[in-house]
C-alpha cells in the first residue's frame, strides 16, 4: 500500500478587525489541532499516522457581532469534529456515504447554534458560514454553507473553485443578471443567501465528492482572503509556492498585508503527495477579471467621405448674390429710423420724477422643479454597476494571530 503525505499550513487572524469571529480546525480525527478565537496554536513538523477516517479541515466565519460571532464559529468546528470523528472506519471506502455524513454533521452544527441562541437570547442574530474538506486518500468530500470557499490548484489544471458561493452576487451571476467579471468587489458581496443558524430556516449545505490527484494543493479560506484578492492573483501566489504549503500561506499573507486586510482572515492550505492518479489536463479558461476602464482605448473609425451631388460653381455663386442688397436695405432702414425718431432728453431744470412703470422682481427666475434622481443606495443601485465594498463596523475585542505551520501527515491506503 502506498503512503499519502499531506503537508498542511494554516492561519487564523483578526486581520483588519479588532475582534476575530473566525475559527479553523485541523484534525486527523484522533487528534484535533484547533485554533479558536482565544488560543494560539502551532503544529510544527509533526508526523501523524492517519486512521481510516481521513483528515478534516474546517473554516468557519462567525457573524453577529463581538463575542457572539466567535461563539457560533466555535460551535461549528466543535460539532463537526465530534460528529465526524465518531463515524465508522470504513467510510474511506464509500465516499458517497461519507458525503451523507458530512451533510448531517453540518446540519447538526446548525441545530447546535440555534440551541445556544435559544438558551442565550442576547445572542439572537448570530450565525456562521462553514467550508470543510474531508480528505480520504484519493477521494475527498467538500461541504459548505455560505461564502467561505475551497479551491484546488494543480499545475496541470490551474486554479479551480470547488465550492459555489451562497451569496446574492453569485445568484445574480447564475441568473445572467451580472457578468462574472463584475462579481469581485461588488458592493453587495456581503449579502449571503445561506448560512448556519439562519432564523427558522433549516441549513441546506451543498456537498460534493471529488477525486484527489497527485500534486494537488487545496486552499480553504474565509471571505477575508477571497474577497480581498482576485482569483488570478491567488492562483499566481499558489503557483509560486511550488507545492510548499508553508510558502503558499506566507505568499497569501504577505499579499493580503500589502492590500491591507479589511476583515478577519482564515487560511488553510494542504498539499497532497503520494497519490498515483495524475490530474487530467484541463483547458483552463481565463479567470474573469473586472475590466479596468483606464486601460480601455477606443480606436477612431476611419473617415469615409460620403458621396454628394456636386453643385456647379456658378450656381453656388449666384445663390449668394441676394445677400448684399438685403444688407444695404437693412442699414438704410436703421438710419431712417434713427433720423426721424431721435432720443428725447429731459429738461435740465426739471424736477419731475419719471413715470412709474410696472414693478417686477429684479432678476426673478422662473425655476423648474429639478428632475428627481434616485440615490444609488443598496436597495436601488443597478446590479450590474457595482461600487466599492462596504466597510463593516469593527468590534471591540482583541485576538491573537494564530498560525499553524507546515506539518507532514501520513496515511496508508
List the helices and strands and how they pair.
Elements: E1 3-13, E2 22-27, E3 32-35, E4 47-49, E5 55-63, H1 69-85, H2 95-119, E6 127-135, E7 139-145, E8 149-154, E9 158-161, H3 168-174, E10 206-211, E11 217-221, H4 223-226, H5 231-240, H6 245-259, E12 265-273, H7 313-318, H8 323-340, E13 402-412
Parallel strand pairs: 4-13
Antiparallel strand pairs: 1-12, 1-13, 2-3, 2-5, 5-6, 6-7, 7-10, 8-9, 8-11, 11-12
Helix pairs in contact: 1-2, 5-6
Descriptive report:
Helix content is 25%, strand content 22%. With 413 residues, it is of the alpha+beta class. It has a single domain, classed as Phosphatase 2c, domain 1, CATH 3.60.40.10. The chain has a 7-stranded mixed β-sheet. A 6-stranded antiparallel β-sheet has the order 3-2-5-6-7-10, covered by helices on one side. It is elongated, with a radius of gyration of 35 Å.
Determine the strand fraction and express it as a percent band.
15-25%
**CATH architectural arrangement:** 4-Layer Sandwich
The low-confidence parts are: 36-47, 291-319, 346-400
User: How is the main sheet built?
Assistant: 7 strands, mixed
CATH superfamily: PPM-type phosphatase domain
Elements, N to C (H/E): EEEEEHHEEEEHEEHHHEHHE
